[in-house]
Amino acid sequence: MFERPNVGERAVLVHIEFTSHGSESEDPGEFRELVISANVEPVATVTGTRKQPTSRLFVGEGKLEEIRDVVAASEADVVLFNHALSPSQERNIERELKCRVLDRTGVILDIFAQRARTHEGKLQVELAQLEHMSTRLVRGWTHLERQKGGIGLRGPGETQLETDRRLLRERIKAIHKRLEKVRRQRDQGRRARMRADIPTVSLVGYTNAGKSTLFNRITESGVYTADQLFATLDPTLRRLELPDIGPVVIADTVGFIRHLPHKLVEAFRATLEETTQAALLLHVVDCHDERRDDNMEQVESVLDEIGADEVPVLEVFNKIDLLEEFSPRIERNEAGEPVRVWVSAQTGDGLALLYDAIVERLAEDLLHHCVILGPTDGRLRAMLHEADSVISERYRDNGDVVLEVRLQSRDWYQLLSRAGMTPGQVRTEAPAS
């Protein structure tokens, strides 16, 4: 595991509004939450407005002097920018302020380094850290020569900087190989589930929307949850039995955030593939958050980036317990299909409606009819009972038995095949309304 930098405990936050960026600026409130999630204490915030950043110091000379004074007054250990800094800007600001400087991506990487628990998660974080660091190697070591030139050769051999770059490249290559092995193992697991016709339902959403709390409610597991950003990094899969559907796999995934660094998206590709291969996405939304609509747009943007924009989505508006006098409900589109469910994962309100909506969305090919079987069709009757697909059963005077059944069409055809029958040999009728 790559050691995360010792950034200290006290931080000065810097947030600059750039008028040329329009509505693309970051949210200072969310950045403060990120910093607290990194176990760093924000002691002061410096704000300002500029038309656009400067190429050398990102901020102007006057604003830099203000930051320097605030750092000295608050005895801060680190300055955190709510922006993406170039490697040269980061170095120049550090040189001027005489303290450690991190940008928004560095803060997110630091949080990921603290939260990763599994071997795969640690590999993914280390890969993102190394790729981020590879652009920030400082030319401060070039006077230290690792190798001297031999007789008849002039000049230094491999410098410390070149050695660092080579070691980074080798480590990044090794991690890519190990993650590729993990990716192949995940592919095998997904193919096995597809062969067994077990659909995957993947939870996605903005960080701290309540995905893991909902996951624990649905699956009765003990995944770590906390009221903080990026409480969950490692993907967790659980098997769940749903009426009429049978077994499904529920996947909890890492939360998304505004302008999620591209390197993190790439590093977590193996994890996010659970999302792209899912039969249904549960887009969990914190309905109490005043930034709700903007957060939903950010999630949709990341889904588009990882190629999951074509996967069917059921919106789950969570945390209705924080709204005044609001009861659970299902919202449907013009075709009558459930598109949104209002629930509270914390209290459990609305979970029954959520189960119904998931079943309805997954059971688009559900068969519900009455099967008329004669005295010689006992094998098919026994198999339908064994599959727990029989709703009711009644007998006619002529000895026929009428079974009202509900099951997936694929399961129906598999049962017929195992019973040695074809669809044309079985009499069916519509169930009584």
Automatic annotation (TrEMBL):
Which Pfam families does the UniProt entry name for this protein? GTP-bdg_M, GTP-bdg_N, MMR_HSR1
* Protein's job: GTPase that associates with the 50S ribosomal subunit and may have a role during protein synthesis or ribosome biogenesis.
Q: Which InterPro entries match?
A: EFG_III/V, G_HFLX_dom, GTP-bd, GTP-bd_M, GTPase_HflX, GTPase_HflX_N, GTPase_HflX_N_sf, P-loop_NTPase
- According to its UniProt record, which cofactors does this protein need? Mg(2+)
Q: Which SUPFAM superfamilies match?
A: EF-G C-terminal domain-like (SSF54980), P-loop containing nucleoside triphosphate hydrolases (SSF52540)
Keywords for the protein's UniProt record, in alphabetical order = Cytoplasm, GTP-binding, Magnesium, Metal-binding, Nucleotide-binding
Question: Per the database record, which ranges form the Hflx-type G domain?
Answer: 199-366
Sites binding GTP sit at 205-212, 230-234, 252-255, 318-321, 344-346
Residues the entry annotates as binding Mg(2+): 212, 232
This protein is called what? Answer: GTPase HflX
PANTHER family found in the cross-reference section? GTP-BINDING PROTEIN 6-RELATED, GTP-BINDING PROTEIN HFLX
GO molecular function terms attached to this record: GTP binding; GTPase activity; guanosine tetraphosphate binding; metal ion binding; ribosome binding
One GO cellular component from the entry?
cytoplasm
Matching entries from PROSITE patterns are given as: G_HFLX (PS51705)
Q: What is the lineage of its organism?
A: Bacteria, Pseudomonadati, Pseudomonadota, Gammaproteobacteria, Pseudomonadales
Q: Where in the cell is it found?
A: Cytoplasm
